[in-house]
């Protein structure tokens, strides 16, 4: 064979230019790419042991001899092909469904392969609730006369991500051929010394084990080897990134002048907590250093991150610079705007806001003022990222609820100034090791203390009656309540309560004597703002809402949170929703209504009832969901992790981190021959993608 790892897949047997184009869509161009196009799952396709019992997955694999077979009509368009298979575990009926064609005999191949006396593997589905399996609806079958069956059945079988036009069968056979012919040529990116100390499989072995494992143990060893490599590359990238940023020297300097900060503090109406003071100091120390700041501020819902952010923004403004404050939703951006207006009322600070619904004329005006330096702090949503938003002298950007944004968006905002400082905030705290892997270029500050005078929130799983009785009690005492639903509109497919329908019911039947307002994400911005306004001003006593109020709403007079179909919300969301209450001194209560239909849902609700500690909740959430889901596809995709799992592979991760540091200490630019491949992979993964790393 003359192909090398760098050859195009086009030259592999059976591929050709048409399929090569399809593979390109999957990011596979060379044979090496193909080897690294790992399965997305593995199916246990050993022969199903007991055909009398339903299998857990519904998948059935049988092997036997065809006793009789034939085609049947089943309708104008559909035909069936049936065969009786005698297996070592009993007889079973197999059925194939085919759409009829006028042009050719859809069963010609079947008639050839599935005929009396033929030995066969079949893979298919059977109804799991049958007492015994009598009929298998066949998805795939493989005659024993053709050795290729070994690729597909009687083993742990890989399942690949596909694209239209590529079949699983073809993809699997090509992967098999590629592994057979080329895995031995695969070179280890992990240096030999490390592979030895960490007892890792060699690359060829790992590739074989990952694509066509002979056992679960082999698969896990292979996965760990590949996961380690991914984590090593990630940690190298972060380490380099940190080193690079640390060497930069930003053009602006800060001096704590207190011309704005002092009157701001004096006008707050409360004193900062010790934790707030500590993190403000950490941030100010960063701001005064030469390299641009990249800091993550973690703090539970209601811990008072906004005044911390505002202090930093004011320092920038005191020094003649501009600041930006970006939030993921319009509601939150508007809430921030209102907070700024309140706290900066008597200060010479010019604030403007920009969202996607700002009218064009107003937008143009604001953009012109921002570009001329006539706006000191610009608040907004993703709208801030647009290309025509240009600052005269942006020095500091703050991103709230940063887990809702991706790395790229962070970078875009950052590029709106020259080496600006960046503060990102989150109320979804995660363990430090994980935070470092996800945001490896960030320093971390944590607010671990709540402002004084808060009475801890009571949380209970409750019936609707109990919850609504509480709403009545509290509103009679002059307080306000939220009632939250999982969906906006009723849907035939989902047996869930919807905000719109329930709003009508609550308004007309349940609380006819109260003013009830409605807010949800599909409402026009103006209507949303109006509903918020009514609730903030206390004119509405009950706010019916969807998850849109999860972040940013700050109404200290609200003391009741009712979450309907609570089992349908994620843990972090429930915690955020609960964080809308308990913002004043009065006792607040959260009622979770709805039964938990799965053990996970039960675990979520129990966790929430048991603790209000955001860190504990964050950890539980990670355990229940894994980081991919928790952090959003955008973010986890950008990390280029195919097989590594930041939670499950925590031990590998800490090894990889230590190894990356040692590697770069010994060979700062990865110029040694034994690091050549590592360097190439690193640049391929992270330089072009994040425009991150500079190894020149
Ligand atoms: P989060 O960290 O969730 O963003 P916020 O910044 O919205 O929290 O603060 C929650 C509420 O607590 C706001 O009403 C804010 O004004 C108030 N707050 C912040 N710091 C203090 C403090 N030190 N003492 C009393 N109230 C505070
Ligand atoms: Mg906040």
Pick out its properties.
696 residues; alpha/beta; OB fold (Dihydrolipoamide Acetyltransferase, E2P); Rossmann fold; seven-stranded parallel β-sheet; six-stranded parallel β-sheet; 40% helix; globular; binds adenosine-5'-diphosphate
Tell me the CATH architecture of the domain at 261-447: 3-Layer(aba) Sandwich
How large is the radius of gyration?
A: 30 Å
In this entry the ligands are:
adenosine-5'-diphosphate, magnesium ion
In what order do the strands lie side by side in the largest sheet?
10-11-9-12-13-8-14
Helix/strand structural class: alpha/beta
**Coarse morphology:** globular
SSE order and pairing:
Layout: H1 16-25, H2 31-35, E1 41-44, E2 59-73, E3 78-87, E4 90-99, H3 108-113, E5 119-125, E6 135-143, H4 149-152, E7 156-159, H5 168-182, H6 192-197, H7 203-211, H8 216-246, H9 261-266, H10 274-288, E8 294-299, H11 305-318, E9 322-326, H12 330-343, E10 351-354, H13 360-371, E11 377-380, E12 394-399, H14 407-414, E13 421-426, H15 432-438, E14 443-447, E15 458-462, H16 464-476, E16 480-484, H17 499-510, E17 516-519, H18 525-536, E18 542-545, E19 558-563, H19 571-578, E20 589-593, H20 599-610, H21 614-625, H22 627-638, H23 650-666, H24 676-690
Parallel strand pairs: 4-6, 8-13, 8-14, 9-11, 9-12, 10-11, 12-13, 15-20, 16-18, 16-19, 17-18, 19-20
Antiparallel strand pairs: 1-7, 2-3, 2-5, 3-4, 5-6
Helix pairs in contact: 5-7, 7-8, 8-23, 8-24, 10-11, 20-21
Bound molecules: adenosine-5'-diphosphate and magnesium ion.
């Amino acid at each position: 064979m003359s192909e090398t790892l760098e050859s195009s897949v086009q030259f592999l047997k059976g591929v050709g230019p048409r399929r090569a184009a399809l593979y390109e869509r999957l990011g596979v161009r060379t044979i090496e790419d193909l080897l690294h196009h790992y399965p997305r799952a593995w199916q246990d396709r050993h022969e199903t042991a007991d055909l009398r019992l339903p299998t857990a997955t519904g998948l059935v694999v049988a092997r036997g001899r065809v006793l009789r077979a034939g085609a049947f009509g089943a309708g104008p368009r559909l035909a069936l092909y049936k065969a009786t298979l005698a297996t070592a575990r009993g007889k079973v009926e197999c059925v194939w469904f085919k759409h009829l064609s006028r042009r050719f005999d859809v069963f010609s191949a079947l008639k050839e392969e599935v005929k009396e006396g033929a030995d066969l593997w079949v893979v298919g589905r059977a109804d799991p609730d049958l007492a015994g399996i009598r009929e298998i609806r066949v998805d795939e079958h493989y005659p024993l006369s053709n050795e290729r069956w070994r690729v597909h059945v009687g083993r742990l079988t890989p399942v690949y991500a596909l694209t239209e036009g590529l079949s699983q069968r073809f993809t699997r056979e090509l992967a098999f051929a590629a592994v057979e012919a080329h895995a031995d040529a695969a070179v280890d990116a992990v240096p030999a010394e490390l592979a030895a100390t960490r007892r890792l499989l060699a690359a060829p072995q790992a590739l074989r084990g990952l694509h066509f494992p002979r056992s679960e143990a082999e698969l896990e060893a292979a996965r760990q080897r590949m996961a380690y490599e991914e984590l090593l590359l990630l940690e190298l990238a972060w380490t380099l990134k940190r080193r690079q940023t640390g060497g930069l020297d930003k053009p602006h300097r800060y001096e704590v002048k207190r011309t704005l900060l002092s009157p701001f503090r004096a006008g707050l109406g409360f004193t900062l907590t010790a934790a707030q003071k500590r993190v403000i100091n950490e941030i100010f120390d960063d701001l005064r250093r030469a390299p641009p700041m990249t800091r993550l501020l973690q703090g539970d819902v209601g811990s008072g991150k906004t005044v911390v952010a505002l202090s930093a923004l004011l320092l920038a403004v005191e020094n003649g610079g501009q600041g930006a404050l970006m939030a993921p939703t319009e509601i939150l951006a508007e809430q921030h705007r209102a907070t700024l207006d309140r706290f900066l009322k008597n200060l010479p600070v010019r604030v403007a806001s920009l969202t996607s619904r700002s009218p064009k004329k107003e937008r143009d005006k604001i953009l012109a003022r921002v570009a001329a330096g006539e706006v000191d702090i610009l608040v907004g949503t993703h709208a801030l990222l647009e290309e025509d938003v240009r600052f005269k002298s942006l020095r500091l950007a703050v991103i709230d609820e940063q887990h809702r944004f991706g790395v790229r968006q962070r970078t875009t905002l950052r590029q709106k100034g020259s080496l600006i400082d960046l503060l990102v905030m989150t109320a979804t705290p995660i363990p430090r090791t994980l935070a470092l892997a996800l945001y490896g270029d960030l320093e971390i500050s944590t607010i671990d203390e709540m402002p004084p005078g808060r009475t801890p929130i009571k949380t209970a799983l409750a019936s609707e009656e109990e919850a609504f009785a509480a709403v009545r009690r509290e509103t009679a005492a002059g307080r306000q309540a939220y009632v939250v639903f999982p969906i906006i509109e009723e849907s035939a497919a989902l047996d869930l309560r919807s905000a719109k329908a329930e709003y009508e019911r609550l308004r007309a039947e349940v609380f006819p004597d109260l003013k009830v307002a409605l807010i949800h994400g599909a409402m026009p911005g103006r209507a949303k703002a109006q509903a918020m306004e009514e609730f903030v001003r206390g004119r509405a006593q009950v706010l019916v809402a969807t998850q849109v109020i999860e972040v940013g709403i700050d109404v200290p007079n609200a003391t009741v949170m009712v979450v309907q179909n609570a089992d349908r919300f994620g843990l972090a969301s429930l915690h955020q929703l609960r964080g809308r209450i308990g913002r004043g001194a009065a006792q607040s209560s959260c009622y979770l209504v709805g039964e938990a239909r799965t053990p996970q849902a039960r675990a979520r609700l129990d966790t929430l009832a048991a603790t209000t500690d955001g860190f504990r909740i964050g950890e539980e959430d990670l355990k229940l969901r894994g980081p991919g889901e928790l952090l959003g596809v955008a973010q986890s995709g950008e990390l280029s992790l195919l097989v590594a799992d930041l939670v499950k592979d925590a031990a590998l991760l800490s090894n990889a981190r230590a190894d990356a540091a040692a590697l770069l200490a010994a060979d700062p630019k990865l110029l040694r021959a034994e690091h050549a491949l590592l360097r190439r992979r690193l640049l391929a993964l992270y330089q072009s993608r994040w425009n991150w790393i500079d190894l020149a």
